[in-house]
Every structure is written in C-alpha cells, then in structure tokens.
Design brief:
Blueprint (H helix, E strand, L loop, with lengths): L7 E2 L2 H6 L1 E3 L8 E4 L2 E3 L2 E11 L2 E5 L4 E5 L12 E11 L2 E11 L3 H11 L1 E2 L8 E2 L10 H12 L15 H11 L6 E2 H4 L5 H10 L2 E5 L2 E4 L2
Helix pairs in contact: 3-6
Length: 220
C-alpha cells in the first residue's frame, strides 16, 4: 500500500493562487506553489452552503466548493469542520474532493489561523517559509511531520508495500480506531497506544483530528 501524500495546512486563498498541474505518469494532480506540488490539503473552515454536488466552505481568506461523490449527509451550515482532501480543477474552477472530515469546535479556527501566520507564501520561493525560523529550518511543517513519521516507522515504506499488514503506522491507526466508541477517543485512552510525540506527528500529518479538547478521531 502506498503511503499517503503530505496533507498541507494552507489557506483557501493560497490554493486559488497556485497553478493547477495535471498528473504526468505516476505523479499526482495538485496545485503548484513555487517548487512544491500540493496534492493533499488539511483545511479548517466554516460550512457556508449546501449544493447538489456537496457543500461550500470558508476559512476567512476565501471560499471553495467541496464535491462529494458518494451518498453522505453534509455537515450542517454554520458548523466548523477539519477536512483532509485533494484539490482539483474543472474549467478553471477549483474545488476539493474530501477524503474525510469531522466537525470540530469553532475555537480551532483561531488555532489554525495562528498556525498559518507562521507560514508565508511566495510564488518565487521554493517552499513555504516558517516566518522567523532559521534558514535551515524553513521547510513545510507537514514535510517535517512526514519525515518524523518515516523515522518512527520500523520498516521503510518501500519494504512494506507488499506487506501492508506489517506497516507500523497502519497497525497503530487500527489500534486507535478500536478505542473509538463513536464519540471519539479520549486522550487518556490514546496514550495507552502511543506517546505525546506520536500524537502530535499524526495530527500534523492529517491522520487524526482533535474534534474537541482532549478527544480525537482517526481519518477514515
């Protein structure tokens, strides 16, 4: 099983600014910003409208359609969601195909705003810069998370492609799902299967969400 692409924390406005690139060969579709191809995003936004194709979200910088190609009740208008999905474009219109989303407390809008204040965007720069960070540490927050996750894994991704059952990350996520009774996983229960450092890495990589303080869910 192939590892998931990095889920970048980014504003909808920056998603609109980038250049959409169609897949070439095995490369994924995505939004090109500088030298970074963003094929997967993590957005926290307010649901502002429903449509036949899905629903519309607004993160305070812009709005964008979320197109759902399966029968699923959309989140209520006015609710705040944390969404992981893939940016797409059709006839110059940008939209997101969701992999998963959960409702979260509205306070997370301010948390995400603060996170994004540390990231500046420039068409001429090769990466997203963490504002004020030393030059050598100016790398995407999600890239750091991915590297950390890879270092945490016992086996290299290429070595487990044919043996997904032995993927430590998948095994960990499966163990987490078993702790969820439908309302989420309490922090105290989560720490029985992993430590705080791993919880933070999974949050940054978009594998789990904190739906409210102290309660978590695994991305389905």
């Amino acid at each position: 099983m192939e590892p998931r692409q990095i889920a970048y924390k980014i504003t909808l406005k920056d998603l609109e600014k980038g250049r959409f690139e169609q897949a070439q060969g095995a490369s994924p579709n995505g939004i090109r910003i500088g030298s970074t191809l963003i094929s997967r995003v993590q957005i926290i936004a307010v649901v502002t409208a429903h449509s036949d194709a899905g629903f519309v979200i607004d993160d305070g910088t812009s709005s964008m359609s979320v197109r759902v190609f399966e029968e699923r009740t959309p989140p209520p208008i006015g609710s705040v969601i944390s969404l992981v999905g893939r940016p797409r474009e059709f006839q110059t219109q940008r939209y997101i195909i969701p992999e998963g989303y959960v409702q979260v407390d509205s306070a997370w809008l301010k948390v995400r705003q603060k996170e994004l204040e540390r990231i500046t965007y420039s068409e001429t720069h090769s990466e997203f810069d963490q504002e004020g960070a030393p030059e050598e540490s100016k790398i995407p927050v999600q890239e750091t998370a991915e590297k950390s996750l890879e270092e945490e894994n016992v086996e290299d991704v290429e070595e487990i492609v044919d043996e997904p059952a032995q993927n430590p990350l998948e095994a960990l996520l499966t163990a987490m799902k078993a702790l969820d009774d439908g309302s989420g996983i309490a922090y105290e229960d989560l720490t029985t299967v992993c430590d705080d450092a791993m919880i933070q890495k999974l949050l940054e990589a978009g594998e789990i969400f904190e739906i409210r303080p102290g309660m978590y869910k695994v991305l389905e």
